[in-house]
């Protein structure tokens, strides 16, 4: 339940409220084991809040009237290595604009 609440806060752009929920979920699972493995490690590893807010200048449509730009959403799935690098990024949803997928 706490992870779902954290996810909800993330989706509402309330990032400062999301991390405490993830931490509480991790603490609740700490000390529990399933199949001899720590539950907290199975579920979460260790909670880390990942959030990237792109600078405004990245958007070539920023500041244009609403009718002149179309907003599309893309979903990217990736792994973050132990060194903090993105590994194996994959576009899983492209908002219908195939020209933007490389």
Strand order of the largest sheet: 1-2
The total tally of domains equals: 2
Mean of the pLDDT scores?
78
Order of helices and strands: HHEEHEE
Radius of gyration: 18 Å
Which percent range describes the beta-strand content? 15-25%
Count the beta strands. Answer: 4
Number of helices: 3
Class derived from helix and strand content: alpha+beta
- Dominant shape: elongated
Enumerate the spans where pLDDT stays under 50 for 5 or more consecutive residues: none
Q: Biggest sheet: strands, sense, closure? A: 2 strands, antiparallel
**How much helix, percentage-wise, in residues?**
25-40%
Q: How far is the N terminus from the C terminus?
A: 37 Å
Write up what this structure looks like.
The chain is an alpha+beta fold. It has two domains: 1-46, no CATH class; 54-102, no CATH class. Helix content is 29%, strand content 18%. A two-stranded antiparallel sheet has the order 1-2. Helix 1 runs antiparallel to helix 2 (15-29). It is elongated, with a radius of gyration of 18 Å. The chain starts with a helix and ends in a 9-residue tail after the last strand.
